Amino acid sequence: MNMELKDFSFMNMDLGTITLTNCVLTKDGDNYKFSGKQVLNVEKYLLTGDIDAQGTISGNTVVVNLDIAAKLDGVSQAVKVIYQGTKLSGSENNEAKINDRVLIMETRPLSKDKRWRLVEIVERAK
Questions:
Q1: Over the chain, what is the mean pLDDT?
Q2: HSE of 23 in the Cβ direction (CA atoms, 13 Å)?
Q3: Is the full-model pTM beyond 0.85?
């Protein structure tokens, strides 16, 4: 599973979108847990570091814990970021499940944050 952190800012620097690739997703009863690591390298700010991400998905609630160990101009900074919110689903009746491959399309605004809708489920998760 890949996870994107859009419009991410760190230490008063706008880093844009950070992508965490190959996060491990495991089922835990009715919930899911995920974890992943990513190396951060932002040449614009001469910023390097490591991101350790862990979280849970329970129903429509997502909790993401990020431990960031960064180095900027030789100065080390450790930061813990916690996000808790609602995942935005274009599948209102929940027919699409985690790890399903789906086809989505952009549409008129469905709500304040939703601009995409589920067209079809291409492949069910195994």
A1: 80
A2: 22
A3: no
